């Protein structure tokens, strides 16, 4: 049975649905250049990472786990796409941007910054949690901690040169990971289940989502967040709206769990989100001249990487290299 109460690794189904919503939003934002989507699509993935974060994981184990899940697929897709450039004899093929990574990667490599940023953010956040004093401060002084991470993130955004692998974005990524971590902590302490919240809570969440969407859409040109470029919109306000939208989307994902015709496709796309993240941009670059209709190209940009994911699940070597499992 595809949809159970939990999926592999103890993750609730609604989280995979949420990842499905997130990755379809990422592709939509890139294919249609919709800056409203930029307000929440990448923060959402960092928030999910924080929600799933385990405080008991030793740092060495965290590094090993994150390297397996993120860096091995990163190297694999980087090599495959570089080879595709070499074969197509593109004059712009350069090696050093691939080694530097982060903001230096554009075109077919544009989304790759997210992987290295998430990798280093997870490790640094794990190190912070392993320190008892820092961990206690993060738990007891939540609002102050939010502002500290945000201020450090804004400080790094003023750097005239992007750091290798987008390390200058790591502090802001940790802020969103921390938001997800605190959200999980609140749920656990209060024994809250999103899917069991009543209609009053639903009305409040819907109202918040409606207001955030209206404000975000109307002022998208100044509110949008482009984490790759360390552009965080209006200080604090954009971050606040982004977190609120992520929470509202989490609630929506939990409610969609009961609608199987929607839940199953989104959950499957959520499981394949890493592969779609890597491959949707090359598909746009290579196929946009052959598929001028954007809606059709959008579907192809989602379904082709999903097909790669599905095929990769059949062999151990392809799961390790392409999926990170």
Protein architecture, described:
The protein has 325 residues and is mainly alpha-helical. Helices cover 71% and strands 1% of the residues. The protein has 16 helices and 2 strands. The chain has helices at 13-32, 35-38, 41-51, 59-87, 96-100, 113-130, 132-140, 142-157, 170-190, 199-218, 220-223, 237-256, 260-271, 273-287, 294-312, 316-323; strands at residues 6-7, 11-12. The protein has a two-stranded antiparallel ribbon. A hairpin with a 3-residue loop joins strand 1 and strand 2. Helix 1 (13-32) packs across helix 13 (260-271) and helix 4 (59-87) packs across helix 16 (316-323). The chain is globular and about 55 Å long. It starts with 5 loop residues before the first strand and ends with a helix. Residues 1-11 have low confidence and may be disordered.
How many β strands by DSSP? Answer: 2
Shape call: globular
Outline the low-pLDDT stretches: 1-11
Straight-line distance between termini: 21 Å
Largest sheet: 2 strands, antiparallel
The percent range for strand residues is under 5%
What's the arrangement of strands in the largest beta sheet?
A: 1-2
């Amino acid at each position: 049975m595809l949809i159970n109460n939990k999926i592999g690794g103890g993750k609730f189904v609604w989280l995979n649905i949420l990842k499905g919503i997130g990755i379809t939003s990422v592709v939509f934002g890139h294919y249609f250049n919709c800056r409203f989507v930029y307000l929440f699509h990448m923060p959402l993935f960092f928030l999910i990472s924080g929600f799933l974060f385990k405080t008991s994981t030793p740092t060495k184990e965290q590094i090993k786990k994150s390297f397996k899940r993120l860096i091995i697929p990163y190297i694999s897709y980087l090599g495959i796409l570089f080879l595709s450039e070499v074969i197509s004899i593109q004059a712009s093929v350069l090696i050093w941007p691939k080694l530097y990574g982060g903001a230096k990667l554009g075109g077919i490599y544009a989304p790759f910054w997210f992987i290295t940023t998430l990798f280093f953010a997870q490790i640094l956040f794990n190190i912070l949690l392993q320190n008892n004093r820092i961990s206690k401060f993060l738990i007891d002084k939540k609002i102050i901690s939010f502002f500290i991470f945000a201020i450090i993130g804004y400080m790094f955004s003023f750097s005239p040169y992007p750091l290798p692998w987008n390390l200058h974005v790591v502090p802001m990524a940790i802020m969103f990971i921390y938001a997800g971590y605190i959200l999980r902590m609140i749920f656990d302490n209060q024994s809250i289940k999103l899917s069991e919240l009543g209609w009053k809570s639903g009305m409040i969440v819907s109202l918040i989502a409606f207001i955030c969407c209206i404000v975000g859409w109307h002022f998208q040109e100044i509110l949008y967040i482009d984490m790759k470029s360390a552009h965080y919109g209006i200080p604090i306000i954009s971050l606040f709206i982004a977190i609120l939208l992520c929470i509202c989307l989490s609630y929506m994902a939990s409610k969609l769990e009961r609608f199987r015709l929607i839940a199953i496709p989104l959950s499957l796309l959520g499981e394949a989100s890493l592969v779609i993240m890597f491959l949707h941009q090359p598909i746009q670059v290579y196929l946009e001249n052959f598929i001028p209709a954007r809606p059709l190209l959008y579907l192809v940009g989602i379904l082709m990487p999903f097909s790669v994911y599905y095929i990769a699940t059949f062999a151990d070597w392809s799961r390790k290299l392409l999926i990170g499992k």
